[in-house]
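Side project, low priority. Logging it here so it doesn't get lost.
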Amino acid sequence: MHDIVIRGGLIVDGTGAPAVEGDVAIENGKLVAVGGSVGAGREEIDARDRIVTPGWVDIHSHYDGQVTWDPYVSPSGFHGVTTTVMGNCGVGFAPARPDSHDHLINVMEGVEDIPGTALHEGISWGWESFPQYLDVLEAMPRVMDIAAQVPHSAVRDYVMGDRGATRAVATADHVEAMAAIVEQALRAGAIGFSTSRTKLHLAADGSAVAGSFADSTELLAIGQAMARAGHGVFQMVSDLVDPEAEFAWMEQLARQHGVPVHYILVQFEEQPDKWRQLLAMTRRAAQGGADITALVGCRPVGMLINLESRYHPFSEHPSYLAIAHLPLEARIQALQQPELRARLLAEETTSTNRFWRSRMAHFHNMFQLGDPPDYEPPPERSVEAMARASGRRPQEIVLDILAGHGGHDWLYFPFINYADRSLQPLYDMMRHPNTLLSLADGGAHCGLICDASAPSFLLSHWARDRRRGPLLGLEEAVALQSSRGAAAYGLTDRGRLAPGLRADVNVIDFDRLRLQPPRWAHDLPAQGRRLLQHATGYDATIAAGVVTWRHGEATGALPGRLIRAGRRAA
């Protein structure tokens, strides 16, 4: 008698091998049979007309604070994720001196758009060193397994001080101290180290992130510490303004110290073909023996904006400011009045924010998201094209979208990975041999971006619904979201459906898998607000042999634990 039997599903095992029909049996948290026909189970899940996949392994999240208060690790939990790696992009909360808590929250709030009030209210601290942070995380059960990386900004701040660490060159003593902290953290179970080297990342007060200007001496010393610890991935986000110079130290780190280097790769509109150059450099580095991998997403990084957003195309117009205090329904009624509409359309924005002022007029790259959400809209559906076709001003189209559907529709600004007005570059990136699927950003970007639903989008769009280019095979899509990420971080006990491995499983009604429109929720501590996006089609998610979600609802089971790399992950 097995603990759980998943009966008669189409098994997509995560390796990329062709799917097969059969049963899956689970005992004591492990897979004991995959395929064929098995005996009875104490609990049986009918998977006929369903696909059975590994639980998703998400290698890019920012739950560093949230995991100290939220056992459900939402929203990734209800998108089939059973393992997540946090501490990306060089930001996090350990090590932390007692007087640096406000500063670390300031950095996280600015870089990852997580409400500072929620972090202040939700994090109880109780640690100073990174090993102590891991101890705190280990004491709390969760719906999924979590793994933590050591953030460069926190390490540098700890050694050099909150303000001195931003642009200062580290002395030899500073470098030695930082390397020791990283080695200590890895030996305690950290799964990697991360750093940020991009001008896009600023703290909430506008200051740069510590480590952004670190020289190669400092980075190579940290790589040497990682080599001494014997494991760990070096994860990085960088503008790669000088790719040759950046790749020089990346290759040295990877070859000399044997440390895998992961860097984030995206397409910017200003340099729409640079990603091709970077991938060519990545391939050459790999062929030369350097373990360097580009981290890529599966959909555009897109801002979502409606009347409830802090900024929208009319938010700084005098006539809108006069009604901004009204409840949403009252604002919509006001915006339907011809007199107010005419005034709004005749006015100019009073915004002095250069970022928002310019982007709110990018009508060629502004779309109606719709229901179901369309993340690959064609150029002819841009606000600019719709205005041209109808003989109206783009602002009129925008106002109709914002005030329609009860104010719950969205303007969609795909400002990264959409320079071609299609997802073909992402298709090519995902299928490249030197890339890994990443960038779901669970827990982050609460007010503008809602990409934690990326695993569900990967299956529904790329393996089934795409019409503007080729599809991914179902088996390929599943492997991208499971075994490949797990293997990259040395998590060899998961990411595949095979006897003896951890029983992390999704049972999915593939035909019904749908993303719902994003919505606002005030469910963070201190009534903090964030964007959430649910999906239909997940019949069940199983973690460590326990059903954690049924049809989008948590069961209350919390089998997830902290992964201590080099120990349980070995």
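Brief comment: The mean pLDDT is 96.
Revisit when time allows.
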